[in-house]
Amino acid sequence: MSAALKKFMDLATPAQQARLAELADTSRSYLYQLASGHRVASAEMAIAIEQATKTIRRGALKLPLVLRTDLARACSTCVYAKRAQRA
C-alpha cells in the first residue's frame, strides 16, 4: 500500500484524480488499486505518477507529493532515485 498515493487520492477532487490518471497514462481504477495495495507499480509507472503529482500540485499545494520511492520497490532501493529526490 502506498500511504502517500492513498492520501493524494483521498484529498484530490475527481477532476484532479482524472488529471493524475491522464498525465500518468493510466486509469483512476489502477491508481486506486495501487493506493490500496492490490497492485504494485513498476518503476516506470512510479516515475510517471511522481511527475504527474508534481504537475498537479503546482495549482493545489494541499495535495501531497507522491514520490517514486513510495510506489516501487525497485525505486526505494535505487541510488539514482534517491538522488533525484534531493534534486
Write a structural description:
The chain is mostly helical and 87 residues long. It has one domain. Helices cover 68% and strands 0% of the residues. The protein has seven helices and no strands. Helix 1 (3-11) crosses helix 3 (28-36). The longest helix is centred in the middle third of the chain and has 15 residues, at 43-57. The protein is globular, with a radius of gyration of 12 Å. The mean pLDDT is 90.
Task: Summarize the biggest pleated sheet.
Answer: none
- Mean pLDDT over the residues: 90
Termini separation = 26 Å
Count helical runs.
7
- The percentage of residues in β strands lies in under 5%
Total count of domains = 1
Helix content: 55-70%
Structural class: mainly alpha
C-alpha Rg (nearest Å): 12 Å
One letter per element, helices H and strands E, the order comes to HHHHHHH
Shape: globular
Secondary-structure map:
Elements (H helix, E strand, L loop, with lengths): L2 H9 L2 H10 L4 H9 L6 H15 L10 H4 L1 H4 L2 H8 L1
Helix pairs in contact: 1-3, 2-4
